[in-house]
Write a structure and sequence with these properties.
Blueprint lengths: L17 H13 L4 E6 L6 H12 L3 E7 L1 H7 L9 H9 L6 E5 L5 H7 L3 E5 L9 H9 L3 E5 L7 H9 L7 E7 L4 H11 L5 E8 L5 H8 L4 E3 L11 H13 L4 E4 L10 H4 L4 E5 L11 H7 L8 E4 L3
Parallel strand pairs: 1-2, 1-4, 2-3, 4-5, 6-7, 6-9, 7-8, 9-10
Antiparallel strand pairs: 10-11
Helix pairs in contact: 5-6
Amino acid sequence: MTTDVLHPFGLKTKILSLAELSRRAEKIRRSGGRLVLTNGCFDLLHLGHVRYLERARELGDCLAVAVNGDESVRALKRAGRPINSAADRAEVLAALACVDFVTVFSDVRVTKVIEAVRPAIYAKGGDYTKESLNAEELAALKAVDARVEILPLVPGKSTSGLLERLHQGQAMERLAIGILGSGKGSNCRAILEEIRDGKLEAEARIVISDVADAGILAIGREFGVPTVFLAPGKWKTKLDPEAETELVRLLREAGVDLVVLAGFMRILKEPLLTAFAHRIINLHPSLLPKYPGREAWAQALAAGESVAGCTVRFVDA
């Protein structure tokens, strides 16, 4: 089983038999390189896996991943696993830039792989400790003088958690939000970064501003979110009735569940308050009721406050 790829070591294949991986590892040792070995099922590759593998790769000069064969996954996991075959899992792992070699092993324990590869570094996820590693595997690591590194897990990212969500039918239930702002868009950027990084279960459907050249519109475009300039009308502190009606139309057409006011500097009225009742939140940079209005942080500093913060509140009439 081979996959032809370009490779920094001049190899044509990343998916190797254990015997071939052993030979590659020996060449790396002779050249003074440090091979990192890790292992696992990697049944449904997700963000937690990718970040873990990237960190493992940073420990040495190349990374080898030993993938549990289908029989060993069945022995280790609950019924219905693996979801994907060993061949499929190996090919997906080999497609990652941070992975240099992949091998499939049939045993429940990775002992024979350790003995054959003799890694300089052995990486394992944060659900283990050095003390909780299997005694047989630990003995093999000690025999080849491998350094053991335990890497932290990515919170909230696990195969079992993903399968549970799929089982409950929640995988696609992401909160659809519309973001309104008048200025630079720092709050908007923070929200979009959290969504991008998988820390916020939401989907930004639209970014709207009452200022044509507002930074928040540029940020929305940077993250690939549809953006709209909404002409506010003649008033300085509120929207014209026509603009308010247009705002409702834009949010409804975007399929928004929750309206987020991220530095939006106009008072909202009908028909928006009824159309999105109990579904509008405002972010304000002070601990209300102290320091309402503009530049709340400057007000807090001028007052000599030793504690500051922000308030998130629902908006109504």
